[in-house]
User: Fold these one by one.
Assistant:
Number 1:
Amino acid sequence: MRRYVLILILFCCSCTNSELQSKAEQTAEHYVKNRLGNPTYFKSVSFSALQKRRYTTSLDTSLNSAGISSENRTRMQKYVDSENGQRPDLAVSNEKDVYNIEHNKLTYYLLIYSFRTDSAGVKKLMKYRIELDTACNIINATDITSARVKEQ
């Protein structure tokens, strides 16, 4: 019985992840096509695996230097209260960062999208680095076709 429950749990988790991946892929393809003006020849080549990331705030940097994890809510709140007492000018930004950390507002997904398009009669392979929010809306899209930066 335990074996079947474990298999069912793994199946449900894999379906959710692949559903998010396919939604992100469709959103990315639609966005890039529209951004390029719906070219006549456009073919998707590949999508990287969807990577879950989190933006880093100034509070994260301060917590890291103090040796406090942002997962430990009580220690984080004590540190923020202490810092707000010492530096009242940082109080508003610290409270905003605490709210964003506690409510997962800093989470985003990263996807690398490769596709072929026709550029003046020459078929060209292009890559875009696409950042999506948790609802699979495009936050940022950057052309990394000729970038020498590592694609993390």
Number 2:
Amino acid sequence: MSRAACDRALERFLELTNTTLEAHISDRAVTLHCLRAHAPEFFEAHQLGPTLDAALEGLAALPSTFPADLPWEVVMARLDAHYFRALYGLENPPLPVADVRAAVAGVTEQSVLAGWLLAELAGALGVDVEVPDPSGLTGMERTYWRTHQILLWTSYLRDPLETEGADEALDELALALPVRLAWGEIDPAAEIIFCLQAAGRAVDPEFLERLLAEQRPDGRFVDSDSDDAREQAHCTAVCLIALARFSSDAPEGGAGETTLATVRSAEAARRV
């Protein structure tokens, strides 16, 4: 595994999210927060503290309004802005409770998964909102539900995972990982990997190498033919978080490469 590959992914992610798109502003802060929590050596080596601080300040510029028919990704970006600024003790304007409830209900009619996540974020911010039941989800949507349970339970990888029921979610994710990779669904596969890592679960290094093999020459990770700017940035972000944890285990000197054998040794050390 190459530290240079993670460096390219970071550089490309920062380029992709250097826009005024609300989802990019949100994803930039979320990703840097996760890197700080999940791959602290990588975070410090790249001196990302000021970049995270600027990203958190950028969240303050997002509107706190939730008009009817607001796209789900914009609703999420605005709730993310409040959620992550609150995690860092930063001030937020009051949320319009009735409008947030209406926005969550409207999104839920289109997607139970998206509605569930928005309802959980709103609830964490003190909004009393009905949370849809996602337990009937299947396939990739179920994977996203389970990974985001882990993210919410850990304040997005910041806190230890001590929630009752976490083992059931993690067992399910471990079984889903080879399936998601087999289907080329690297965005949810990367989320599974960093959730398992965060919980101290072993991840077969071959899965990491299969993920790494999907990187484009320009540093991006893309798991579909979509030109959607948010999807490409998000996929690059989650793959970066998953791989950066192990890039810190690469030996100093030389080309900075970690072979499969080296990664296996690092993984074995984590199990002791």
Number 3:
Amino acid sequence: MNRFFLLLIPVAFAQCRPAIPEEVPLPTKICVRTQHHTVPIPNAIVYLKYNADSFPGYDQTPSYFDASFYTGADARGCIESVPEGKHWLVAFGYDSLYFPHYVYGSLNTEISLKYKPELDTILYISE
């Protein structure tokens, strides 16, 4: 009987441990300010294509991209836990001051945990 209890003790402790997380968030981040000429463009959508060697183009469907985020009323937006590698950002917005009103732009960047874990920049968009 005593041996039975000795065998149950490790099993009981193993059941009390917290679950192992399925994903570990990376300490990486991309922040952009969308801007057309000198005018901030709020509420723009920014798509990301991870590990892309070439420009993905402006005519891809949203499902083609790996992630997306919107800029806020101040034209700034961020996305966290970006994987390491070379990525393309493609942005679409609306500028009521210039014609044509729909504007777009792109930026390629590289994220590295060791050398460049964060990016904070202006993403210029135009007609």
